Write the structure tokens for this entry.
Amino acid sequence: MKSDPEGIVRVGLIGFGTVGRAFARVLAREGADLGLRRGVSLSLAAVGTRGAAGKHDPGLGAGVRWTEDLASVVSDPDVDVVVELLGGIEPANGLIRAALGAGKSVVTANKMLLARHGTALQDLASEKGAGLGIEAAVAGGIPILRALRSSFTGDRVTAVSGILNGTCNFILTEMEATGRAYAEVLKDAQRLGYAEADPASDVGGDDAAYKLALLARLAFGRDVSVDQIAREGITRLLPCDFVYAKRLGRTPRQLAVARVAPSGHLLLSVRTHFVSETSLLAKVTGPFNAVEVRGESGGPFVFSGRGAGGDPTATAVLADVVEIARGGAPGARNAPPLGFARLEPCTPATSDEFVSPFYLRFIVSDRPGILADLARILAENGINIDAVFQAPYEDKSALPFVVTLEPVSGRALAAAFVAINSLGFHVVPPLALPMTE
């Protein structure tokens, strides 16, 4: 990597939103000290952002060039490393490809882009001998990608899973703590900055799926596509689900799971699970993330911390910039950012291979024979009932109750639900959640 005559590595930043602003400030604050502590000298050379004139921050230094021409940051001869914090697919993809094509190293936190095009970007970085830093794309400041890339190379990973979306975790833990409905808690999350004005990507599971695709590639060396990940959102949970969860000694958590099935294929999903109150994941509350990695030899390891927000993500971005400046660039042929120079095709496991005990919640207009109808349909599909729960409830026109099942395959349960959904007593569609330890 080239740098200026004084040995300073010059950074060009594209995007000056929450994370971009936090990165610029932490770089300005820590830049001088990094020379003493880490042996690298960094400076911010250029910032490309919409409305650049109104965002000019003199605290970042007098020598910073501000521009609305994003491509000029990439082509600037005074920029050695490009940091992309725009988000989305375009123009980010074109800008990153232009930088890598010119042999410039890139650091990005763009999980959507990396999930969709990360393999191609890795190949381009390798071809050009450029670095591609991606640590901040998953779980904010938690160094989980670096751990999978380096620390688990001596073991065979069998599963990687966890809480990957702080918005969902905040909503679920607040619903549990307060007994309030989803819509009310979502408004709080938006007011506090934990949820976007349009929260669909978070609460629908897409955000966690992007991150899981990256984790699975690093864990298993397979080219997992986002479209291969089954996902269900958290929007259908009701306050009564948290009442029944407590009775079962469990709590709802949105989990992203990638696990090797007995067939060798990958089970891939993002959905709400009822986790045991004794598990480590049950202790993860608010806008925090946690990732569990299981290896054949080393067993389970859990990484947890603040998974979103400007400052945690900015520290992960800066760590990648420092690594690149020191010559350990992920992306060169000896250090592919996705952990494997060549990813194998991914074949996802079928729903037959997902077997779990399940929680079924029904809200019905009460009448005789409801339990008999449900028991008959479940029995016809080879499904055993474990228990039936009904908390006292006055309104018989919308009566909630719960059926728990012994371990059952996803395929058998889906077949049963086709018949169950056709029954005429439902006030709202029934909900099925796997129960996990």
